[in-house]
Amino acid sequence: MTAARARPTDCPTGKRRYRDRIGAKYALAVLKESASWRRQETRAYHCRACNGWHLTSKP
Ligand SMILES: [Zn+2]
């Protein structure tokens, strides 16, 4: 198998991974609309370890 892996958890940080900024921004918007959101994630950032995107609470 030579296909690129695309599993959401394929990052050393263990954080949930999003494939691109759009996906992360969308997930963040959905999170803020949900009742379970506790302001833990407020921003999307690019991760160099997995070349994906994560959400963070840090400014
Ligand atoms: Zn990552």
Outline the structure in words:
- The chain is α+β, with helices and mostly antiparallel strands and 59 residues long.
- The chain has a domain at 21-56.
- The chain is built from 1 helix and 2 strands.
- It has one helix at residues 21-33, and strands spanning 43-47, 52-56.
- The chain has a two-stranded antiparallel sheet with strand order 1-2.
- The radius of gyration is 12 Å and the shape is globular.
- The N and C termini lie far apart (39 Å).
- State the major sheet: 2 strands, antiparallel
Distance between the termini: 39 Å
- What level of helicity do the residues show? 10-25%
Low-pLDDT runs: none
Order of helices and strands: HEE
Instruction: Report mean pLDDT, rounded to a whole number.
Output: 84
Query: Which geometry do the CA atoms define?
Result: globular
What class would the helix/strand composition place it in?
alpha+beta
Overall number of strands? 2
Please tell me how large the radius of gyration is. Answer: 12 Å
Widest β-sheet, arrangement of strands:
1-2
Per DSSP, the total helix count is: 1
User: Compounds present?
Assistant: zinc ion
What portion of the residues fall into strands of 2 or more residues? 15-25%
Give a short overview:
The protein has a domain of about 35 residues. About 20% of the residues lie in helices and about 15% in strands.
Notable traits:
single chain, 59 residues, alpha+beta, two-stranded antiparallel ribbon, 2 strands, globular, binds zinc ion
